[in-house]
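User: Modeling request: complex.
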Amino acid sequence: MSTLSIENISMRFDLPNGTHVQALQDVSLELKTGELMSVLGPSGCGKTTLLNILAGFLAPTEGQITLNDHRVTGPDAERGMVFQQGALFEWMSVRENVSFGPRMKGQREAEFGGNVDHLLEVVGLKDFKEKAVYELSGGMQQRVALARCLANDPDVILMDEPLGALDALTREKMQGLVLKLWKETGKTIVLITHSVEEALLLGERLLVMAPRPGRIHKEYRLPFAEMGVGQDLREVKKHPDFGAKREEILSMIWDMEEEIMGRTEEAEA
Amino acid sequence: MTILIIYVAIFVGAFFAVRKGVSKFRQMNDYTSLKTVTFGDESAVRPDRWASVISVVTIFLLWGAFTGSKWVPIHAPGPFIGDTEFVYTIEGPDGTRDDATVYARVFKVGEEVTDREIEPGDGIAKNDVITVGAWRSSLLLMDKNDEVTRKEGAKVVAIDGQPVGPGDTAKVANGTVVITAKGSLNFAPSKGMQMEPIWLPPPESVVSRVAEISEQGYQNFTLFEHLYWSLFRVIVGFALGALVGIPLGYAMGLSDWFRGWFDPIVEFMRPVPPLALIPLVIIWAGIGESGKIILLFLAALWIMTISARAGVSGVAISKVHAAYSLGASKWQLMRYVIVPNSLPEIFTGARVAMGVCWGTVVAAELVAAEKGAGMMIMVASRFQLTDIVIMGIILIGIIGYGIDILMRKAENWLVPWKGRV
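Assistant: Request completed. Predicted assembly structure:
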């Protein structure tokens, strides 16, 4: 029912020097409720632009986005966002951060309190409710950001490299947490990442984008996210298919990078 | 020069004394003290509190020692006070010579003094009496009572046996004698190394001034009233500046029209030092309270505007996006994200603005005022009441420092996340 559909999106910026950049060209895609999609691509492929358009922070030059049969024109509580650096509000406690969305809607403590406390427990921050967010580690801050997004009960969660700034160990734990939350809440999730492994682990669907102009290069449907729910993610990574897919995608991205380098060299020559 | 050498000597001496002596008793084993690389690591350079204490004590000791303070046991040699004499030899037009003694009495300026009783002596030169204040000098027309005068061709040829001519300086006991071009004598008792109170009064007279002016007042107002009025002007001027400047800064940070409209004005007014506005403000508003407050308002306004604008532009775009994605309206974004996020910048601006206002109010009072700390020291300096001037400077410094400390405390309390994001 709550389908997110992306219809023929193109994005073209004019530059001050008279030229223009084609950030996205004719991107079309449909996401059903509860789907988990990861987006991967070399830098400059427009994946962050795509996410910003989905969130409503940018208006595409062509095409449109619809969610639940209405058109997306700006940011809205129905599309939650998790940023790379958490983007938490330092002047609020952990609990105040998590309850920000409901409070903005004018809900009272009695209405949101239980849900907020439950979410804090799910992300493992029950004992840190009243702490200031700047006292938390990077991983904990990112859990606050996840809980804050979920507390608002959005239809779609957009994640912009949410685990990119974390160390390897924390990152692995957080990947498990993202899978758990996805399964428990049944939210539609779009996750942008630089890491091929993360894209494989956290993508029921995996979208590989190509640069210049930004476009969809290839789409995969993968079993690993389903396998990884409640499992040790290292076991999933040992799966023979996992290794094969990783190599395939890595070489695909390498080819794209080399093509770009080649093109730049031609342009310079 | 001597003072500088003594100061450097204390600086170096205290360094070695503290390093060799006291440091042995200071057992510190925290992280910083275990660093081996400290030269170049700014964070490892922590102020040595011994140095701070010795530094302040040294300033007071030097001040006291070179002003003859009663509070300080050691003094630099003071000016000569008491009776002294020297002998001059006069040569008459006919070549006859005679000696006469000059009996000088050097007294502390401001104290009662009586002339010395002496015998005139015999010969063609007669003994003289002079009375000189310490740090002053006195011209002696020695031939006034002599039997030969300079008009007749007599001249002084020696002082205490040293042959001299016009323009020469002779050293005598407890002073110097200069033979003027016209041949009379100018006696200057030795000044010693202490400062004259008119240049630098001893600390106790500054302190006693505090008590005196707190009770009796100076120029129709007590010390407290002078300081109160200065502070009052600063606080009202700053408050008005903040009241207008902060919303203006927010508007400039949030609206392109406001930014475009006020940018040229703010960018032009910002580098104009508030002191340059004093003459105009006096023409417009006179020297009363309104003029001062307008001046301080202008001094604070641009600083607060710019800091509020910087506070808005300092909001990470991801926080704004996050708030909108969580369903915040524009007003909610303003209230819950932009205002709190800009508080650290605004506090930094407020600290700068308070400092500038405090400096400006004192300067404005120096130019023209009926009351205030600046007016008090300006009037006192006209009457050479150096102790009031120094007292005023110290109090102005203490208040300025106090304002800064209060602002920092308020900052730590209200924006605990500053610098920790």
